[in-house]
Amino acid sequence: MEGRFALIADRSQIALIAPINFFAFFQSPDDYNIRFYIGSFLTMVRLLSLLITMMLPALYIAVVSYHYEVIPYEFKLTLKGALEYVPLPPIVEAISMSIILELLAEAATRLHSCCKCSGTPTARRPWHIVDVPRVSSSTKVRIGSR
To answer: What are the residues facing 17 on neighbouring strands?
Structure first.
């Protein structure tokens, strides 16, 4: 645990790990099982995605609401035509889109594990039904054969 300790309370479903820093939230346990450079690259991708997630909605609102001059003219016409039928201002649109994406991400983490299985028939169900042929008393049966 790299010098950390875990505080586990009785009859509680959560545990506290301390001390922790900001960059520890971007490391995955899988990063320790792969090569150093690949794990570092994946951590940098996570940090970059955080920056994009924080900056892109603000940039969209700033450009659409206040700074039309940085948009090319053809794209400006397309954007204006698309925003003409939207009854909400861009800030409400961006906030509602963020909320919807968070709800979808939360719903995806709460899906039942059988929904995440592959499409094979045996993977979709936890049991495996085998058709057992009728065997006469004189026939020898091998275990494990279909």
So the answer is: 6
